[in-house]
Amino acid sequence: MVLLVRFGELALKSRFVRRQLRDRLVANIQDLFAAEGVECITEADEARVYVHVDDVAKAHAILGRVFGVVSISPATEVHSDLESLRKAVLSEASRALSPGQSFALRPRRVGTHPFTSQDLARDLGEAVRQAHPDVRVNLTQPDVEIHVEVRRNRGFVFREIWLGPGGLPLGSQGRALAVVRDEAGMVAAWMGMKRGCRIAVATSDGEALVEPLRKWDVRLKVLGLPPDGNLGELVRIARAEAIFLGTR
Q1: What's the CATH code, domain 175-244?
Q2: What's the pTM value of the predicted model, to 2 decimals?
Q3: Taking a C-beta distance cutoff of 8 angstroms, is the pair 191, 169 a contact?
Q4: 3.30.70.1510, 3.40.50.300, 3.10.180.10, 3.40.50.1010: CATH of 2-77
Q5: Taking the mean position of all CA atoms in its chain, how far away is CA 240?
Q6: Residue 125 three-state SS
Q7: Lower Cβ count inside 10 Å, N or C end of the chain?
Q8: How is the chain split into domains, by residue range?
Q9: How far apart are CA 142 and CA 123, in angstroms?
Q10: pLDDT tens string 67-79
């Protein structure tokens, strides 16, 4: 199974910066999968990361903790010709539709093809209607949505879109030190991580308080907070460019 991984703010950057951020995102995905002992194969283009996995449920849980991921869809991949797309859509419709239900086709096309997105919607929608005469089309509030994404010579058919955490890839926006004494400090650290900062945590409460953050950063560095609260040496060790205090 292939999971389509979409990234959001990365698309607003220049091509060079976008490639750097995307490569960081891919590296972070690989780190979290390796930490969980789940095998995956990753590839990427200018707009998507493709994660090939055997265990979709575990992969979903992992990708839901990767900053920079906006959404995820488990998809069936086929060639981009109409016949292959038609077969995949009919297979998806057979699994998803029940008599009396309504459906909608949501096509998206990138690149040059001998058909338009409207052509896809008409052709594939009619194929579903002929195969399932007891269902109807409803483009505004369908019971079932079938998405078709064509990217060059690759076609992807899917129904589900799972939300990710968003933000920017961890480690793409410099380093920071987060002082974690309580839940507010942990939230501040998490928010800094979501904005792409590589966070080092300073705490006097040991690993237990910051353990939830390790689910988001397998390379999390934890430093002991000195009794006098002086952060100078910790800033040097962490090479921090900012400090998150998490005060209420």
Answers
A1: 3.40.50
A2: 0.93
A3: no
A4: 3.30.70.1510
A5: 27
A6: helix
A7: C
A8: 2-77, 81-152, 175-244
A9: 18
A10: 999 999 999 999 9
